[in-house]
Every structure is written in structure tokens, then in C-alpha cells.
Specification:
Layout: H1 10-19, H2 21-32, E1 35-38, E2 47-51, H3 54-61, E3 68-69, H4 79-82, H5 92-102, H6 109-127, E4 135-136, H7 137-154, H8 160-176, H9 179-186, H10 199-223, H11 232-238, H12 249-280, H13 282-293, H14 301-305, H15 308-320, E5 330-332, E6 336-338, E7 341-343, E8 347-351, H16 353-357, H17 373-376, H18 397-414, E9 415-419, E10 427-430, E11 433-436, E12 441-447, H19 451-459
Parallel strand pairs: 2-8
Antiparallel strand pairs: 1-2, 3-5, 4-12, 5-8, 6-7, 9-12, 10-11
Length: about 450
């Protein structure tokens, strides 16, 4: 016996989820509780369950045995974009090998080297905004994040190849978020190549152009290796597994595209949300600026990233405005028990990040933006999981949070911004992420000087 869930036809549930995933998830959670069945996105399973109970999530996300796997068919909406060798879809020993190869660039001294680039790129993009001219924070932060990711992952952010790569990435991302392209992920019969005029045919054409550029870059670096380069692609090309084998060109392509595709989109959305919440709550902004000003002029990026209130603000943003709706899917291979239910092989499981982050038993007044909750207690990885959990958590999570902190700190420290209007932003489903429906409409009112300098100038 499986948990209860909506009984409307599969096609209708898929359309409901595509149109308004938040309403779909909240309505079913209210009716059925911490675990419910769904017919949406369940093409390759006997039944699909959505889970938001932390203990159940721990059981799911820490189970890396043959009993519970993460096959690519459960995440097929993004397989055509990211590739079969993406860490998101690999299983068993192949997943372990790839993760060990990809992980080193995102830890230790490597991260320290990325910090100043994040601050510099953020300032360069923000300096291009005209005073009193409205802009969408999500659009501007997408430009920031894409430049950061191309600098960090590819090692360049200028030149003809960079311009072509940037244009194709942004076009593909915009297309991915279009309702018709999103529908192809849930309705596979729409994946028909009918030429450039058709959505799927156009996607395949642009994907090939992007691949051609990336493979050209990989081949050039293989012919002329440079051991001094510290970008992720170069480090991955130098990496060797336990058998001394390097990654193939296809493996490199899929890991790089995954980092660029997921990394820049999710991080830019999170930064835009942080700007919204900070300016929506002046008391939060004032407290955060006091903390930033206490560091003096030109603080080190790693020092900024360690600030406790800045960290709390970013965490509360990721809780209130979950960018990722769900964890990657797991498929039951052998009978298991979960929350009192005996689950049979063929059952698919998805953890709901959004619903977990809105649990009132974990987060009192869950609809209130309150960074202090992250200073008052520590949440387990199954209560707060903006980047997923277990061995399949996002490989670039530390870089994403690092970039989010530095971009937010750079903007607040250097510019006077304001929300353009008082209309509240709402979460809206776009592709596999949740974004601010109106993009966070803001305006630059002027440059900002550190508070201590302003006081000194007044006294003199």
C-alpha cells in the first residue's frame, strides 16, 4: 500500500505542476501530509512519492546501496541538457569515481583564489547600471554569475569564443525556462526534431554549437597543456582516478556543462532573492551593513565569507526562497520501509526541499524572513538542504554559497539600492527551479561609502 495522493489523470497533474508547482505541492501536502503519491513526472516508475519529513529524507539521502539508486530516467527533464555523464545521473562506482575527480577544485586554497574574481566581476557589472534606471536584479545577477562561472570553470571571460559561449548559454537557459520547452521534459512525445523552426530541433542545434565550442577549447588545451592554469576545466583535465586514468572529452563536457548550467542559474537566482529580502526588511539591511562596515576597507573575501550574520541572511534566503524545488530522484530497487509504508521496487522518491523548508515545527513563523533563526540553532542536513543532501548534494554548493555571500556583500557595501515598488515578489516555477516571478525590480540610487567614513566626514 502506498501513501495517498491526488487521483486526477496523469496528464492533468503534469500540467498542474508545470503551471504552478508551488500550489500543486502545498495543496497536496495540506491534504496528505509529509509523504504523498503523485502521477506527475512518474513515467518510469510504478508510483512516485514526494517526501518532506526530515527523518525520512535522511533515510533516502544516505541510502547509497543497490536498494535505492538515482537513475537518469528519473531526472530525464535535464539529461538532454547536461549529458549522460553528469554527476546528477551517475550511479555506484561510476558516480564515486567522477565525484572524486570533480571535488578538489571546490575546496581549500582553490576557493580562496576565486574570491577576488567574484568581487571584481560583481563591481564591474554593477558599475554599468545607470543611476535611477530600473533594472531586474535576477537579470543582472545572471550576468554576474555567468561571468564568474566562466572565469572559474573555463578560465576566461573575454574574447570571441567567450562571447559566443555566453550567448549560447543564456539562450539555452532562457529556452529551458520557456513553458513549451519545460513541457517537453514532462511530455517526452514532444521531443521531436522537426528542424530549426521546432522548439526541440532548435534546442538540439544550439546544443551542438555549444558543444563544438567546448570541445574546441578542450582539444586546444590537450595540445598545449598549461599546468599553471587554475580554472576548473584545466584542473579536471589534469585529474586522474585511482587507476591513473583521466576523464574523457565527453566526461569533461558533461561535468563542465552541469557546473555552468546549474551553477550560474541557481546562484544568480539566490543572489537576486537575497537583495529582495534585505531591501524588503530595512532592519536586516542595517544590521548586515554594520557587520560589513566593521571589517574596514578592502577586507579579504575569505574574511567576508565567514561573517555570521551575512551567512545567516544567505541561509534564510535559501530557506524562504528555495531555488531548487526537490532533490534528485531515487528509485526503489529492493523492498524498503519508509514512514511505515512498505515500498516495492519501481517506486520513485523525491524529497521536497520547498516543503521541508516551510515546516512550522522546524521553522516557527515559516513565512517570516528571520535570519536570526540560523544564529539561534543549527539545523541538520535533512532539515536545511538548499543544495540537496547525502553523497548527491550539489558538488558546487560551497562555491555557490561563497559567490552568494561575496556578491551580496559587494553590492550592499558599494551601492545604495532600493526596490522599485512595494509589490511582493512571489516564487514561480521556471524549469526545475523557483525564481522571483517579476525578477526583483530595483534601482541604483547612488554609490555608498562605508559608514565610519560618513561619520568622520560629518564630524569634520
Amino acid at each position: 500500500m502506498i501513501p495517498d495522493g491526488p487521483q486526477t489523470p496523469r496528464l492533468l497533474q503534469n500540467l498542474q505542476f508545470v503551471r504552478d508547482p508551488i500550489a500543486y505541492m502545498e495543496a497536496n501536502a495540506e491534504l496528505y501530509g509529509d509523504i504523498f503519491s503523485t502521477l506527475a513526472f512518474s513515467f518510469h516508475s510504478q508510483s512516485t512519492l514526494i517526501v518532506s519529513n526530515p527523518e525520512a529524507l535522511k533515510q533516502i539521502l544516505t541510502n547509497d546501496t543497490k536498494d535505492l539508486t538515482a537513475p537518469s530516467e528519473l531526472n530525464e527533464i535535464v539529461v538532454p541538457w547536461l549529458g549522460d555523464y553528469s554527476l546528477l545521473f551517475l550511479e555506484g562506482e561510476t558516480h564515486r569515481r567522477q565525484r572524486q575527480l570533480v571535488m578538489p577544485p571546490f575546496h581549500g586554497e582553490r576557493m580562496r583564489g576565486y574570491g577576488q574574481a567574484i568581487c571584481d566581476i560583481t563591481k564591474t557589472v554593477m558599475d554599468q547600471q545607470s543611476f535611477a534606471q530600473p533594472f531586474l536584479a535576477r537579470t543582472i545577477m545572471r550576468d554576474v554569475s555567468l561571468q564568474v562561472m566562466m572565469k572559474v570553470v573555463l578560465g576566461f571571460y573575454e574574447g570571441e569564443r567567450w562571447e559566443q559561449f555566453k550567448h549560447l548559454m543564456l539562450t539555452l537557459m532562457n529556452n529551458f525556462q520557456h513553458p513549451l520547452m519545460l513541457a517537453t521534459g514532462f511530455l517526452p512525445f514532444l521531443q521531436k526534431d522537426l528542424g530549426l523552426w521546432s522548439p526541440w530541433g532548435n534546442f538540439l542545434h544550439m546544443r551542438q554549437q555549444l558543444d563544438d565550442l567546448l570541445y574546441a577549447e578542450i582539444n586546444e588545451r590537450r595540445e598545449k597543456p598549461d599546468p599553471e592554469r587554475m580554472d576548473v576545466l584545466s584542473l579536471l583535465m589534469l585529474a586522474r582516478d585511482e587507476a591513473g586514468q583521466p576523464m574523457t572529452n565527453k566526461e569533461l563536457r558533461d561535468q563542465v556543462i552541469t557546473l555552468l548550467f546549474v551553477g550560474h542559474e541557481n546562484t544568480s537566482t539566490a543572489i537576486a532573492w537575497s537583495l529582495y529580502w534585505v531591501h524588503k526588511h530595512p532592519e536586516v539591511k542595517e544590521k548586515l551593513l554594520e557587520e560589513l562596515d566593521s571589517l574596514g576597507d578592502s577586507p579579504e573575501p575569505m574574511t567576508i565569507a565567514r561573517l555570521p550574520y551575512l551567512t545567516a541572511v544567505c541561509n534564510e534566503t535559501l530557506r524562504m526562497s528555495s531555488v531548487n524545488m526537490m532533490t534528485s530522484g531515487r528509485l526503489v530497487r529492493s523492498p524498503i520501509e519508509l514512514m511505515g509504508y512498505q515500498l516495492q521496487p519501481g517506486t520513485a522518491l523525491f524529497g521536497s526541499i520547498y516543503l521541508t523548508h516551510r515546516r512550522e515545527d522546524l521553522y516557527p513563523e515559516p513565512k517570516r524572513f528571520k535570519p536570526e533563526r540560523f544564529l539561534e540553532r543549527e539545523f541538520s542536513p535533512y532539515e536545511f538542504l538548499p543544495f540537496g543532501g547525502g553523497i548527491r548534494s550539489c558538488i558546487g554548493a560551497s562555491l555557490a554559497l561563497f559567490e552568494m555571500k561575496l556578491a551580496l556583500a559587494t553590492v550592499l557595501s558599494s551601492y545604495q539600492l532600493a526596490l522599485k515598488d512595494s509589490k511582493p515578489e512571489q516564487l514561480q516555477g521556471r524549469g526545475i527551479v523557483l525564481v522571483p516571478a517579476r525578477g526583483v525590480n530595483m534601482v541604483v540610487q547612488g554609490k555608498r561609502v562605508r559608514q565610519e567614513k560618513e561619520l568622520t566626514a560629518t564630524a569634520s
